Every structure is written in C-alpha cells, then in structure tokens.
C-alpha cells in the first residue's frame, strides 16, 4: 500500500508505550497494532485528530506516501 503509517517512530520519540497511547487516544491497543503494522484500510479523521493531539504532531508526521513499485 502506498500510504505508510509511522507511529512507531513518533511513539519512540515521545517515549510513550502503546498501552498509554491507546488509552490517551481512546482506541484499543489492537487497533494501534493494526495501524502500526500497515493493515489499516482507513482511519477516521476524529481518530487521526486524537492521535495528532496526543503526539503533538501533524498528520504528515505519521503518514507518508510512497509510490507503488511496478510489477
């Protein structure tokens, strides 16, 4: 998928555990894992806003576009 979620980087920079982060954002640790592992197909803007609020960052700090490789 061409959109990469880089939550690991931001969590490490902020020294926040997945459990603490999930509680602060208001979603389950399992859903955090889905985002971190690149298995998410969508994210609600309200969830993205909560993630940015907790991490004090912009969406572009955690979402990156990479071009698909040709077959």
Describe how the helices and strands are arranged.
Layout: E1 3-5, H1 7-14, H2 18-25, H3 29-36, H4 45-55, H5 59-62, E2 63-65
Kindly provide the radius of gyration, computed on alpha-carbon positions and rounded to a whole number of angstroms: 12 Å
Shape: globular
Question: How large a portion of the residues is in β-strands, by DSSP E?
Answer: 5-15%
Number of strands: 2
Distance between the termini: 14 Å
CATH class category label = Mainly Alpha
Q: Helical stretch count? A: 5
CATH architecture assignment name: Orthogonal Bundle
CATH fold-level name: 434 Repressor (Amino-terminal Domain)
CATH evolutionary superfamily: lambda repressor-like DNA-binding domains
- Unreliable runs: none
Please describe the biggest sheet, giving its number of strands, its sense, and whether it closes into a barrel.
2 strands, antiparallel
Description:
Helix 2 (18-25) packs across helix 3. Helices cover 55% and strands 8% of the residues. The chain has a single domain, classed as lambda repressor-like DNA-binding domains (434 Repressor (Amino-terminal Domain), Orthogonal Bundle), CATH 1.10.260. The chain has a two-stranded antiparallel ribbon with strand order 1-2. The mean pLDDT is 92. The chain is built from five helices and two strands, in the order βαααααβ. The chain is globular and about 40 Å long. With 71 residues, it is mainly alpha-helical. The two termini are 14 Å apart.
Q: Gist?
A:
The protein is mainly alpha-helical and 71 residues long.
């Amino acid at each position: 998928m061409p959109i990469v979620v880089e939550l690991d980087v931001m969590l490490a920079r902020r020294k926040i555990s997945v459990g603490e982060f999930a509680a602060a954002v208001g979603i389950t640790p399992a859903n955090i894992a889905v985002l971190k592992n690149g298995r998410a197909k969508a994210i609600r803007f309200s969830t993205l806003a909560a993630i940015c609020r907790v991490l004090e960052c912009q969406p572009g700090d955690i979402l990156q576009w990479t071009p698909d490789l040709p077959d």
